[in-house]
Automatic annotation (TrEMBL):
Top-rank taxon, per record: Archaea
GO cellular component terms listed in the entry, alphabetical order: plasma membrane
Keywords per UniProt: 4Fe-4S, Electron transport, Iron, Iron-sulfur, Membrane, Metal-binding, Transmembrane, Transmembrane helix, Transport
PANTHER family (UniProt xref): FERREDOXIN-TYPE PROTEIN NAPH
MF term (GO), any: metal ion binding
Residue stretches spanning the membrane: 21-38, 44-64, 99-117, 129-149
4Fe-4S ferredoxin-type domain sequence ranges: 173-193, 200-227
Name of the protein this chain belongs to: 4Fe-4S binding protein
Pfam families from the UniProt entry: Fer4_10 (PF13237), Fer4_5 (PF12801)
Organism of this sequence: Methanococcoides seepicolus
Record flagged with keyword Iron-sulfur: yes
Length: 227
């Protein structure tokens, strides 16, 4: 009877995860519709409007509504099928951590360009050809990289994600791990798209976290909670 109960509980959890993922996809499609209708600047305003929620839960826009995340998930799923165990092996972990700071370099580059533009130290043509086109190329290439690396754009290149990630330092509700329930299975580490070692933390405060909550969803013993 206990085995049957465990199976039923597991199936219910899988069904719940599937419902959450359908909800996530719906939000991402809404984000895509906003982007198409209002243009590239819409991302900035949506991120700005999500700040109150981000102060509570962290960068939820990144994990739940960003259309680029949706495209990365689609391309990444293809990469997993083609590459199998070789997926996510392109960038070693020793290089991964320094590369996490590159998105802040991209953000700083954009902010510097905007200041110089407002001071009329660079003209429209330079702003468009170097800054706008350059950032567009970086983002397209990084999304395509998700065929080899999970959420490559989010990890290393996204300027909006870089700004939003700072809310992880001040967010009120955090992902906490109950060590008494944790069985060290490592599932949370494997499902984390940002390569955070969740199983080694009591509280997830990492700026790389995109508040996707996949670690919480997939934990088989409910050792992870948002508190």
């Amino acid at each position: 009877m206990k085995v049957a109960g465990n199976i039923i509980s597991r199936l219910q959890k899988i069904e719940k995860v599937e419902k959450v993922e359908r909800f996530r996809l719906s939000l991402q499609l809404i984000g895509l519709a906003i982007f198409i209708y209002f243009g590239s600047q819409s991302t900035f305003y949506v991120v700005l409007l999500s700040v109150p929620v981000a102060l509570l839960f962290g960068p939820v826009y990144c994990g739940w509504m960003c259309p680029r995340g949706m495209f990365q998930n689609i391309i990444g799923s293809m990469g997993k099928r083609v590459l199998g165990k070789r997926y996510n092996k392109l960038i070693p972990k020793r290089i991964h951590k320094p590369l996490l700071y590159f998105r802040y370099v991209v953000l700083l580059f954009l902010l510097t360009a905007l200041v110089l533009y407002e001071l009329q130290l660079i003209d429209d043509s330079l702003m468009e050809s170097v800054v706008i086109d350059g950032l567009l190329v970086i983002m397209v290439v990084s999304i395509l990289l998700s065929f080899f690396v999970d959420r490559a754009a989010c990890r290393y290149f996204c300027k909006e994600g870089a700004a939003a990630s700072l809310t992880n330092l001040v967010k009120i509700r955090k992902i906490k791990r109950d060590a008494s329930l944790c069985n060290s299975c490592g599932i949370c580490d494997r499902v984390c798209p940002m390569w955070i070692d969740v199983s080694k933390k009591d509280v997830v405060r990492d700026t790389a976290c995109i508040s996707c909550m996949k670690c919480v969803q997939k934990c088989p013993v409910d050792a992870l909670r948002v508190e």
